[in-house]
Specification:
- By secondary structure, the protein is mainly alpha-helical.
- 51% of the residues lie in helices and 9% in strands.
- Strands 3-4-5 form a three-stranded antiparallel beta sheet. It has a three-stranded antiparallel beta sheet with strand order 8-11-12, with no helix packed on it. It has a three-stranded antiparallel beta sheet with strand order 13-14-15.
- A hairpin with a 4-residue loop joins β1 and β2 (168-170).
- The termini are far apart.
- The structure holds 1-deoxymannojirimycin (DMJ).
- 1-deoxymannojirimycin (DMJ) is lined by residues 357, 417, 487-488, 547, 551, 575-576.
Length: 597
């Protein structure tokens, strides 16, 4: 007798099953009918019993699985001499309390191990989604740049800046009376870094065809240097396109007459056509300004390096030598210096407006010389030691701020511009006089203070300047100080601190600022500054500053990029965020270097 062939679920036929022993066929044939019937009865009773057991006995499958799982963990600890075949069952149901506790402990360990495993898995997942978030942010940042650029392209092309609400071009006296396409030149390297190559080529074409410096226009030497020469040099170094170098040199030649003063300290402004220079009417007794004549070094050294003409290098080194010879009250550099007499004007010292980038360029002169310009490093170290002693204080609430020295006393007010110093302290920590940790910490404290100045507003955007006076901390008091004009300094500091610490708070703070800019500064025709960061319905100032594209959006982009994008040991950013490469020169001065003939 053979059983019917069975068809398993897989569809594969399996061989017929032989139920009886094949060697005794005769014995089977001799079974009588009654015997067969009794056998059948017994068989059916057995089957019924099995069915009953299957359906009605308590489900022990879970325990079984539990025991099996536990076994995996327990087996290494089982004492073979106790003879427990099934250690899981034995330990749980055994009478021995001590062993029971042990078992519980092991169980807890297993749960803990399971949790840890799950946590690791979750972390892995989180890593992935963090990457996704980062990619999203990259796109968002590009979107901001695209919005700013595209609208400038449509409504302001060739003008210096854009009025994003009136949807037309805009300019200020720093750029003179000509349309010099400041936004194009300032934005070029940001476009390049972000991979917006069509836009970059558009800008390049305009520069080739329309950027003309033979114009009867009086421009700010400092602004034109940091935005135009810095922007053109960075575009040249990044893209290798000769046109940018040519234009940078043409413009630099036009600035040289500004240095024709009795002392060699340049005028603040120069007419590009006539070469006639003068100073701002509001600057103390006809003075030139420290942050202006002291923020030429990086670009001018690069110009000498690229052209082989030492003239640029000599101009900035002359300024340095002159400053070194001067007396400094309390070791501090006053903001005003008369270019005719060579004497300080009003004793006003600030790490914010009027002073800021002078200190920045001392540090960066050392960095871009591949750390060989020790004279610059020493001047920087001396200067920040005096600044720390006289200007940096802690508020009652524990916020570190940088005040300003004015008329013999410390004004407890810090400008948005001074917030760049957090990044500067961090950048200068390495190579300091054995105080690297201290300066990194100081940088972090300044970053925190500046973040507070943002956080204590309705818009989560920082005011132009904020006070520390009694109960007032990191808040603007005067109406005239409550505006935000798309400035970069706070985000700049977040970026440097991020690079040096990788503390996620800096990305978070940067992201908060980006969201606030999107929410309150974005208008249909671009991005605009706001007049009062403490008002939840602020009026717009209707200006899209060129530094918003050059700096604010670039630092935001870098903040959410990897450290391998423009690494800081190869690139030094000028004060307008234009990256210039470290020059691997043989000595601290350019004379004698083959690059300078
Ligand atoms: C920029 O033009 C430069 O950063 C400069 O050094 C001072 N500040 C503006 C933007 O705020």
């Amino acid at each position: 007798m053979t059983a019917p062939a069975l068809l398993p679920l897989s569809g594969r036929r399996i061989p017929p099953l032989n139920l009886g022993p094949p060697s005794f066929p005769h014995h089977r044939a001799t079974l009588r009918l009654s015997e067969k019937f009794i056998l059948l009865l017994i068989l059916s009773a057995f089957i019924t019993l099995c069915f009953g057991a299957f359906f009605f006995l308590p489900d022990s499958s879970k325990h079984k699985r539990f025991d099996l799982g536990l076994e995996d963990v327990l087996i290494p600890h089982v004492d073979a001499n106790k003879g427990a075949k099934n250690p899981g069952v034995f330990l749980i149901h055994g009478p021995d309390e001590h062993r029971h506790r042990e078992e519980e402990e092991r169980l807890r360990n297993k749960i803990r191990a399971d949790h840890e495993k799950a946590l690791e898995e979750a972390k892995e997942k989180l890593k992935k989604s963090r990457e996704e978030i980062r990619a999203e942010i990259q796109t968002e940042k590009n979107k901001m740049m695209k919005h700013a650029w595209d609208n400038y392209r449509i409504y302001g092309w060739g003008h210096n800046e854009l009025r994003p609400i009136a949807k037309k071009g805009h300019s200020t006296n720093i750029f003179g009376s000509s349309q010099m396409g400041a936004t194009i030149v300032d934005a070029l390297d940001t476009l390049y870094i972000m991979g917006l190559h069509d836009e970059f080529r558009d800008g390049q074409k305009w520069i080739e065809d329309s950027l003309d410096f033979s114009v009867n226009s009086e421009v700010s030497v400092f602004e034109v240097n940091i935005r135009f020469i810095g922007g053109l040099l960075a575009a040249y170094y990044l893209s290798g396109e000769e046109i940018f170098k040519i234009k940078a040199v043409q413009l630099a030649e036009k600035l040289l007459p500004a240095f024709n003063t009795p002392t060699g300290i340049p005028w603040a402004m120069v007419n590009l056509k006539s070469g006639v220079g003068r100073n701002w009417g509001w600057a103390s007794a006809g003075s030139s300004i420290l942050a202006e004549f002291g923020t030429l070094h990086m670009e001018f050294v690069h110009l000498s390096y690229l052209t082989g003409d030492p003239v640029y290098y000599k101009k900035v080194m002359h300024i340095r030598k002159l400053l070194q010879k001067m007396d400094r009250p309390n070791g501090l550099y006053p903001n005003y210096l008369n270019p005719r007499t060579g004497r300080w004007g009003q004793y006003h010292t600030s790490v914010g407006g009027l002073g800021d980038s002078f200190y920045e360029y001392l540090l960066k002169a050392w960095l871009m010389s591949d750390k060989t310009d020790l004279e610059a490093r020493n001047m920087y170290d001396d200067a920040i030691e005096a600044i720390e002693k006289h200007l940096i204080k802690k508020s009652r609430g524990g916020l570190t701020f940088i005040g300003e020295w004015k008329n013999g006393h410390l004004e407890k007010k810090m400008g948005h511009l001074a917030c760049f110093a957090g990044g500067m302290f961090a950048l200068g920590a390495d190579g300091s006089r054995n105080k690297a940790g201290h300066y990194l910490e100081l940088g972090a404290e300044i970053a925190r203070t500046c973040h507070e100045s943002y956080d204590r507003t309705a818009l989560k955007l920082g005011p132009e300047s904020f006070k520390f006076d009694g109960a007032v901390e990191a808040v603007a008091v005067r109406q005239a100080e409550k505006y935000y004009i798309l400035r970069p300094e706070v985000i700049e500091t977040y970026w440097y601190l991020w690079r040096f610490t990788h503390d996620p708070r800096y990305r978070q703070w940067g992201w908060e600022a980006a969201l606030a800019i999107e929410k309150y500064c974005r208008v249909s025709g671009g991005f605009s500054g706001v007049k009062d960061v403490y008002s939840s319905t602020p009026a717009h100032d209707d200006v899209q500053q060129s530094f918003f594209l050059a700096e604010t959006l670039k630092y935001l982009y870098l903040l959410f990029s990897g450290d391998d994008l423009l690494p800081l040991d190869h690139w030094v950013f000028n004060t307008e965020a234009h990256p210039l490469p470290v020059l691997h020169l043989a000595n601290t001065t350019l004379s004698g270097n083959p690059a300078v003939r």
